[in-house]
Design brief:
Elements (H helix, E strand, L loop, with lengths): L20 E3 L9 H18 L13 E3 L37 H5 L1
Antiparallel strand pairs: 1-2
Keywords: DNA-binding, Metal-binding, Zinc, Zinc-finger
Pfam families: THAP
InterPro entries: THAP_Znf
């Protein structure tokens, strides 16, 4: 059974051999405390960028994000916090722009 991308609205499947799929970052329990904190920070950044309330930490073990959501096509390591691919950012399935005021009162403000 093919795996689907976890991004809302993305229809990429593992049957497409031109696209790579990546697991969510794991937090290694036997790592040093500062490394564990960085791993946890990256995992939370991935969850926050997906904006999916239905995800729980137990569900992410089986979910994947496809390469279409990373600028370089693959995620960065947990050490590279300044890398734009530290968490998925492209084609996230939601609009990032701010809303436009529609009522006359709001336009004046």
């Amino acid at each position: 059974m093919p795996t689907l991308c976890a991004i809302v609205g993305c229809s990429n499947k593992t049957t497409n051999k031109n696209i790579s799929f990546y697991r969510f970052p794991k937090v290694k329990m036997n790592a040093a405390s500062d490394l564990k904190m960085k791993m946890n920070k990256q995992q939370n950044a991935w969850l926050k960028s997906l904006r999916r309330l239905d995800l729980a930490n137990k569900n992410i073990d089986y979910m994947r994000v496809c390469s279409a959501h990373f600028k370089s096509g693959k995620p960065a390591k947990y050490q590279d916090e300044n890398d734009p691919d530290w968490c998925p950012t492209l084609n996230m399935g939601y609009c990032v722009t701010r809303g436009v005021a529609t009522s006359p009162v709001m336009k004046r403000i």
